[in-house]
Amino acid sequence: MALKADFSHFLNENGKVHSLTEQASMVFTFLKKIVSAVTFEIEQPIIEVDLQCSTRANDLTCTGSIDASCPDLTIIHWHCDSCEASGTITNWQGSMWDNTKPTIH
Looking at the chain, which runs of residues are DSSP E strands? Predict the structure, then answer.
C-alpha cells in the first residue's frame, strides 16, 4: 500500500509545522528527509536517500533503503529497495525543506 502525502497538510499558512501527534511527527520527519534529499539532487533520475525504511510498525523491521525520484518537479516518488513500502509526496515546493534553487528566466 502506498503512502500518498500532501506536505502542506503538516504545515500552517506560514510554513511552520503544525502541532503533531507522535505518530504524525514520525511520518513527517521521514517525509521531510526525503524532500530535502531529493530536492538537493532534483535533476538526478534516481536519488538514494540516506535514510532507512521506517514506514513499518515498531514490531516490524526493515533494513531497506529509500530510493526516490522527482520526474516532473511536482511530485516526489519514493520506495524502499527491500520491502513494499512506497509513496508520493506533493506540495513540498517552497517549504523550508525544498532545496531547489530558484530559476531566473
Answer: 2-6, 47-52, 65-69, 75-80, 86-90
CA distances from 84 to 14, 43, 56, 65 (A): 35, 25, 10, 12
Tell me if residue 51 falls in helix, strand or coil.
strand
| Residue 15 falls inside a structural domain | no
What's at 98, amino acid-wise?
D
CA–CA gap between residue 102 and residue 79 (Å, rounded): 27
Tens-digit pLDDT profile for residues 57-73: 565 678 889 999 999 88
| Angle, alpha carbons 24-78-67 (nearest 5°) | 120
Domains contained in the chain, number? 1
Residue range(s) defining the domain that contains residue 25: 2-10+20-90
Is residue 82 a part of any domain in this protein?
yes
